[in-house]
Amino acid sequence: MYGRFTIPGGGILCQEAKAVPMEPDKKLQDRLARVEGQIRGLRKMLEEQRGCEDVLNQLLAARSGLEQAGLILLDRHLTDCILSDPMISAESLERVREALRLWVKHAE
Known about the structure:
The chain has helices spanning 26-47, 52-82, 90-107, and strands at 5-6, 12-14, 21-22. By secondary structure, it is mostly helical. The protein has a single domain (25-107), classed as Up-down Bundle (Methane Monooxygenase Hydroxylase, Chain G, domain 1), CATH 1.20.58.
């Protein structure tokens, strides 16, 4: 369990008053598969004693991939768990998403 949600084998389950199961997200799974490949590549690069710059570039790519996966999950959590109240308009949801994108853009 992470905070207010659990990650079971099939997806995510919100821990709100009424639990809403989240279906596995193909974008998220694809992103994590790419990161997994990058990590395997990192291990191979270390075994082959590749140059520090090459290894660092691969490490930064993997880190960026994890950050992107986190954003996909956060967007899904906002949509399905936090802002799913029918009183919240689609426009308000989009403003929250835009604020999140702006925050992430300037956090780097």
